[in-house]
């Protein structure tokens, strides 16, 4: 009877596995194989070219620029986003009425769609009538300069990721067993010692997860760039996925489409493997 139930359980998950293969694994394997061939506009394979598609891609100055832009956004966005969400969750980690009110403000970004948020930020950083310039008395042509345009894009990315990461970190804080906190109080630990030596190590797994979520989000970022700068000025704010959009959808470049998508999936798999290894090491430490 027990074995029969086990077989039925596999039947229940079979539709989900079939859909996962159909919409995730099959497209990837098809794109990966296609990246070693030339294709016509109908997507039919014509001739085997080996690594020529990859060589052509990495010899393209705009693709290399998109990698640099993506890396630059990553090294700024990931630590800033992690610090701000951790700071926000730390302030309200103790359950109280006032903290619940403050916490409800932190999750306001969830009420906005990505496209609406991008349009709001585009108006806030509008070069000709910037609200940010008015508030802080600045004179910056935000979206017409590469550096300031990247800052605007990063600010939007932080806004989009903030609420979810805040909820994850806050939940981790509040799942810490009360007896651990009480034991530290009995031992005479002060607030700073309790926070840095007890609470932060307890939520390290969640912090690691939010970091890798942020890395994934940066790798796939395209819509904020599309809506705010369209890759400008002079293609200086193109990310890898926005470059993919330009080549695959606007340029109908089949070789670039399959090659870039293969690279992105492979790098995503690398991130997932790295996350799994770090989590295992943390558990066995």
Short characterization:
The protein is mainly alpha-helical and 285 residues long. The protein is 74% helix and 2% strand.
Please state the average pLDDT score: 89
**Percentage of residues in strands:** under 5%
Give the number of helices: 13
**Biggest sheet, strands in spatial order?**
1-2
What report would you give on this structure?
With 285 residues, the protein is mainly α. It has 13 helices and two strands; from the N terminus they run αββαααααααααααα. The protein has helices at 2-34, 52-58, 61-91, 97-106, 114-124, 131-136, 146-174, 178-186, 191-202, 204-219, 223-228, 240-250, 254-284; strands at residues 37-39, 45-48. The chain has a two-stranded antiparallel ribbon with strand order 1-2. Strand 1 and strand 2 form a beta hairpin. Helix 5 (114-124) crosses helix 7 (146-174). The protein is globular and about 75 Å long.
What's the helix and strand layout?
Layout lengths: L1 H33 L2 E3 L5 E4 L3 H7 L2 H31 L5 H10 L7 H11 L6 H6 L9 H29 L3 H9 L4 H12 L1 H16 L3 H6 L11 H11 L3 H31 L1
Antiparallel strand pairs: 1-2
